[in-house]
């Protein structure tokens, strides 16, 4: 996974520089049209469910049903693992008052959403970069030990595990009684959610780091072979494929009959969800590993050129851009007219979804590769400094 390779190559440098580094205090640059009503999620933007998996739902729209904080009043709590200098790359998922998140120490943690107190943890034999999904009282998560695990959400007791032939960076999606997840072995797997029995698998020509999106009886997933694939969710039969000019780490978002996907060729693509026909593409200044969020007729996506972009979902026309001080691999979260996104500069940014105006920022001591989640008016996000944060 290129973002992880990038993370590993930069980690030593970051730790050496963090104490001495003085980050710019200049205001962020925003280009956009002022004014206008706050952007809200509209019907069809996302399934109605809690922030129970990566990008909030199985369509991966990045739209959260809770309102998010427009001003920063407090850090509610922080959680740090007991295992040395390990960080979080996994993105948190929240349901029934519990936050679930994976760690580089190989554990999946379940924390009380109100207090940050640990309820339980489950140890795998590899780092957990995959983001958990929760459905029907079960938590599903992948590990770099090549396994996908299904655990009791209340106790952490293992219910079943499924072995792939490669590391599992991909975050599982749960829909229609099935679990879909990609693997470093180049396959997308479809498993029975209750038993872990394999229903089908589909082979691509590259590693599958992308997290699948499920909508309208279809499953969409990217591959390091540079393609986005559209498959029948029930059978795994290929419906269409779309070729970009580089690998696809980004996870697709499905909304309004369209699929939006980023590529390391520096573009965000908008495709017809049924046919795969390209509707438009937008060129950023660098690789797009961030996964897009779609809400209120807008698409939001980060880029390795340090910026978050807001585009018209129908035309691809740029509405505004926001400049951070480093790469934006984190995927934006939209909640209650706000957009939240992390940056390699160690900050979480809170922006007005319509104008791009910065409302507040929160500084950590590591890079923020993890993507924020919003529930109960609180933003949960993790950093490579080893902390999971809850702020409002």
Can you walk through the features of this model?
- With 392 residues, this protein is mainly β.
- The chain has a single domain (2-391), classed as YVTN repeat-like/Quinoprotein amine dehydrogenase (Methylamine Dehydrogenase, Chain H), CATH 2.130.10.
- The protein contains 1 helix and 33 strands.
- The strands form 8 sheets. The protein has a 5-stranded antiparallel β-sheet with strand order 1-26-25-24-23, with no helix packed on it.
- Strand 3 (93-95) and strand 4 (98-102) form a beta hairpin.
- The protein starts with a helix and ends with a strand.
Describe how the helices and strands are arranged.
Elements (H helix, E strand, L loop, with lengths): L1 H17 L11 E2 L43 E6 L12 E3 L2 E5 L4 E6 L5 E6 L9 E3 L2 E5 L4 E6 L5 E6 L9 E3 L2 E5 L4 E6 L5 E6 L9 E3 L2 E5 L4 E6 L5 E6 L9 E3 L2 E5 L4 E6 L5 E6 L9 E3 L2 E5 L4 E6 L5 E6 L9 E3 L2 E5 L4 E6 L5 E6 L9 E3 L2 E5 L4 E5 L1
Antiparallel strand pairs: 1-26, 2-33, 3-4, 4-5, 5-6, 7-8, 8-9, 9-10, 11-12, 12-13, 13-14, 15-16, 16-17, 17-18, 19-20, 20-21, 21-22, 23-24, 24-25, 25-26, 27-28, 28-29, 29-30, 31-32, 32-33
């Amino acid at each position: 996974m290129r973002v992880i390779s990038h993370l590993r190559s930069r980690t030593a440098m970051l730790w050496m520089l963090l104490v001495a580094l003085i980050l710019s205090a200049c205001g962020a640059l925003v280009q956009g049209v002022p004014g206008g009503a706050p952007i809200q999620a509209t019907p069809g933007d996302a399934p109605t469910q809690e922030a129970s998996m990566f990008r909030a739902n199985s369509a991966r729209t990045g739209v959260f049903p809770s309102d998010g904080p427009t001003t920063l009043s407090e850090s509610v709590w922080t959680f740090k693992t007991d295992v040395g200098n390990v960080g979080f790359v996994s993105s948190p998922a929240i349901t029934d008052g519990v936050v679930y998140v994976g760690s580089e120490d190989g554990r999946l943690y379940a924390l009380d959403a109100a207090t940050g107190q640990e309820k339980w943890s489950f140890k795998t034999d590899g780092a957990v970069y995959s983001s958990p999904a929760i459905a029907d009282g079960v938590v599903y998560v992948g590990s770099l030990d090549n396994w996908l695990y299904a655990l009791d959400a209340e106790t952490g007791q293992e219910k079943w595990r499924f072995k792939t032939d490669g590391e599992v960076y991909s975050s599982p999606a749960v829909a229609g009684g099935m679990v879909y997840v990609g693997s470093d072995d180049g396959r997308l797997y479809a498993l029975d959610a209750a038993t872990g029995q394999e229903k089908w698998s589909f082979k691509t020509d590259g590693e599958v780091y992308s997290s699948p999106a499920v909508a309208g009886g279809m499953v969409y997933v990217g591959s390091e072979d540079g393609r986005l694939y559209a498959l029948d969710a029930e059978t795994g039969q290929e419906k269409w494929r779309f070729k970009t000019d580089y690998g696809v780490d980004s996870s697709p978002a499905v909304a309004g009959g369209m699929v939006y996907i980023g590529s390391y060729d520096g573009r965000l693509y908008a495709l017809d969800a049924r046919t795969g026909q390209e509707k438009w593409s937008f060129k950023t200044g660098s690789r797009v590993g961030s996964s897009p969020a779609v809400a209120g007729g807008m698409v939001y996506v980060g880029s390795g050129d340090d910026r978050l972009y807001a585009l018209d979902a129908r035309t691809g026309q740029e509405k505004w851009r926001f400049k951070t001080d480093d790469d934006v691999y984190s995927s934006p979260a939209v909640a209650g007219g706000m957009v939240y996104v992390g940056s390699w500069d160690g900050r979480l940014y809170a922006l007005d979804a319509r104008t791009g105006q910065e409302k507040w920022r929160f500084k950590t001591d590591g890079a923020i590769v993890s993507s924020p989640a919003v529930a109960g008016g609180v933003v949960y996000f993790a950093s490579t400094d080893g902390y999971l944060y809850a702020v409002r």
